[in-house]
Amino acid sequence: MKQFLEIGKIVAVQGLKGEVRVEPWCDSQDFLCEFDTLYFDKGSAPVEIERSRPHKNIVLMKIKGTDTAEQAQLLRNKILYMNRDDAVLPEGSYFIQDLIGLEVTDADSGCDYGKICEVTETGANDVYHIKDLDGKIRLIPAIPDVIAEINITEGKMLIHTPEGLFDED
Question: β-strand 79-83 against 147-151: which pairing, if any?
């Protein structure tokens, strides 16, 4: 498992006093605003966050030591990382990066469907994309009726396959 996870990207400068505009790559702007320390360079360079706040669909952030628009401009397009140890996820929530690559098996029949290759966030519920050995993609809703068990440590997900979900045309 990766220790440092991508959480956002600095996309622009905000004002003249060194604030930056960050595009969140997480579930919510509020989650991004919870961190006092984030990282550049895949986790090797810690940066102290003086303040952050949601603004429309982005986060306005002040990074310690960045006090002018010129300094902030040098940070454009940099990726921000979080240390997974600094985050507390609600019960039953997972980092998308931990779900990618899980082996998906039918809890009832034992049929192997493939591996999760992508997660789409739809608003109502996430959708897991499962790629089989032939490269075929199947989609399953990430809802309690379908997801029986997720075991990140063992790299496995058990599902209950609703009738018709994987039926061929």
Answer: unpaired
